[in-house]
Amino acid sequence: MKITAFEGSPRKNGNSSLLLDAFLEKTAVDAVVKRYRTDELELKPCRGCLMCNVLKHCALRKDDWEKLSEQILDSDVVAFATPIYFHHTTSSMKKLLDRFRSFLHVQITEDGIIHKTHQKWNKKFILLTAHGSSSVEDAASLNELFDFIIETLGPENSIERINAVRLAVRGQIGFDLQQLEKTYVKLGLPAYLAVEDSKKNAEWLATAGYLAENL
């Protein structure tokens, strides 16, 4: 099994990164895993030139997308871990996702746009998000984008996701109960929430591992 994983947090040991750690730690021992931090990648922004319609690959060259696109196509599993910033993913992760346009042929019609893939896709996608907000609705825009990506790439693809909420402090998902109570007091949240949230945090980490074990 080949797994390509992208970590979108600009902060090391952030909550989404810890979710990705929990996922990758439980992957099969013979899995070939390649992990990247998106803010360390050299990626040019998509120009919307649609030259990928003709070339069947991105027209922008001499950056990391040449290598990454080949690895993505060769992977069985593609995982994305990101915090939610301003109701969406981070800017470095968005730049990566925008380059997925090059996997598609785009036809403009009088009623909209028709997307067709250049290659057949049959992959498992994993989306792991961490929100400072208490509501999963703050990740709705990103979830809708991934729904669109999966649908566009074809019915043979599937996605599993974890949307972990109320994680405003780096590493908070791994805090013990006492640490979490102190954090909530500093954030102005009721300390009693820490009891249930401590269990939820542990469940999210365990679920990330479960997803890996059941690929």
Q: In a few lines, what is going on in this structure?
A:
Helices cover 37% and strands 21% of the residues. It has helices at residues 15-25, 52-55, 65-74, 91-98, 140-153, 177-187, 193-213; strands at residues 2-7, 32-37, 77-83, 104-109, 112-117, 124-130, 158-164.
Characterization of the model:
By secondary structure, the chain is an alpha/beta fold. Helices cover 37% and strands 21% of the residues. It is built from seven helices and seven strands; from the N terminus they run E-H-E-H-H-E-H-E-E-E-H-E-H-H. It has helices at residues 15-25, 52-55, 65-74, 91-98, 140-153, 177-187, 193-213, and strands spanning 2-7, 32-37, 77-83, 104-109, 112-117, 124-130, 158-164. The strands form two sheets. Strands 2-1-3-6-7 form a five-stranded parallel β-sheet, sandwiched between helices. A two-stranded antiparallel sheet has the order 4-5. The chain is globular, with a radius of gyration of 18 Å. The N and C termini lie close together (9 Å).
Notable characteristics:
single chain, 215 residues, alpha/beta, five-stranded parallel β-sheet, two-stranded antiparallel ribbon, 7 helices, 7 strands, globular, Flavoprotein-like_sf
Helix content percent band:
25-40%
Counting DSSP H or I runs of 4 or more residues, the number of helices is: 7
Biggest sheet strand line-up? 2-1-3-6-7
- Runs in which pLDDT lies below 50 for 5 or more consecutive residues are none
Structural class: alpha/beta
Give the SSE order as H and E letters: EHEHHEHEEEHEHH
Largest sheet: 5 strands, parallel
- Cα radius of gyration in angstroms: 18 Å
The shape is: globular
Domain NADPH-dependent FMN reductase-like: 1-145
Protein name: Flavodoxin family protein
Organism: Candidatus Thalassospirochaeta sargassi
InterPro entries: Flavoprotein-like_sf, FMN_Rdtase-like_dom, ISF_SsuE-like
